[in-house]
């Protein structure tokens, strides 16, 4: 079984479960292989935080697999990423493996890599040279796989709402299949595998604790912080789901360590737990109203099927709810966004290659000049003079995570207020997020920049101050992340420059706004209109 970057778990893992069953049938040992392809990580802007998370989880999995006498072996490949298929086939040949089982990664480069493996083995079978085993690639990352639901015309959906309705109908019409775990548990190897000449020594293999070129910028301090914020290991994902499904929202208590803010269990979780109150909770950045499961879903420490199974169980009806009128239904809709964006990147692979979904904006937008990259730098560092933007960007820097509403606000700010190419933001997010995932990140950025599938219309531009009042009415989120503004009272915290003098702002240690929102809004609308006319 070839473990990928997005399926780092033993439970409900399609290819792993299948490989285990095949190994049992054939009375052959199961081996788990994981490749660190540094060329891929570099080219895909993989964040050191996500890599650190992956390494920690692999070390945990290695121990769990060893209990089943299954070795987990990793290879760090520093060369050209196009060499990975040859590397894998050679390794399998050396191990005299009979089969290779892996979950599909839907991004373009990964599909090309897997196609190359299929072609190599086909050629090997024809020529009798090279590894000739069986290759099975399986669908696992989504609940409803890309291409599984299509429009009446048999085309992929480019609008979310009808997609979500079909997605939900597909699940509800095969409810038993979706709600009953299809993937069996991983079965132990014979313990004699430990005496095997090639496989035995693999049990002593050590998972690296960091990868060259991807060390955490903040060294040991950052490593400790990440471990505390985003732990891995026994019971962690169960704990996160329980907190979200069974306990109460904790207003403004969770900023330091979102997964540690333990609320009381509630008697009627369907209504009063975090998921029960998700309709309002998800829109407040000062409330602990969302699950914080995204790093675990992105790297596959929990399967998305398990998420909806738990939601279904809590809802307690005959169907999986997916409407906007209950917290559970609303949360299920958010999980559907994840599948939607995967389906988009399969249907329109150009989005994986830094091109917009909407071809009207392909090379036509006249992005602003940013002399010396000063504005981009200020955005990255949380020094734009717009408190909600700065708070959000500082939370990203500290935690590798940002609330969804804030992701929308800072993405709109970069692409519309600063008129900086959204790809700069997409890249920076991938380099900083612990939950960075091409589909959701690209989808979110293209939504915000109005270039994507079913995006925010180009003329709807978030006003950072009024957004701030909506999502953080008391300013608690801002006060936490931008301590310079801690003493400000009332609405001033959302837009200090509207009430205070330059001197007052600078004396607090804060900065003046780097752009005039009203003017920037007019310019952005003009530029988007011009781009469309140019197309
Ligand atoms: P919850 O509200 O509890 O939602 C549960 C799960 O549903 C999430 O963990 C996630 O897997 C999925 N989900 C929720 N909202 C979305 C969405 N809009 N799009 C796709 N999936 C969603 N999400 C990522 O996982 N990785 C990214 O790299 C990423 N980049 C983003 C960039 C931008 C500009 C925007 C606007 C959104 C991005 N998102 C990304 C989506 C969303 O912001 C995060 O999934 C969410 O904030 C994670 O927090 P949570 O787990 O508490 O979410």
Automatic annotation (TrEMBL):
The keyword Flavoprotein applies. FAD binds at residues 278, 290-294, 331, 334-341, 435-437. Keywords: Chromophore, FAD, Flavoprotein. GO terms for biological process: circadian regulation of gene expression; entrainment of circadian clock by photoperiod; nucleobase-containing compound metabolic process; response to stress. Binds 1 FAD per subunit. Residues 1-136 form the Photolyase/cryptochrome alpha/beta domain. The record marks 367, 422, 445 as: Electron transfer via tryptophanyl radical. One of its GO terms (cellular component) is cytoplasm. The keyword Flavoprotein applies. It comes from the Eukaryota. GO terms for molecular function: deoxyribodipyrimidine photo-lyase activity; DNA binding; FAD binding. Its cofactor is (6R)-5,10-methylene-5,6,7,8-tetrahydrofolate; FAD. Belongs to the DNA photolyase class-1 family. This is Photolyase/cryptochrome alpha/beta domain-containing protein. The chain holds residues 115 to 649 of 649 of the full protein.
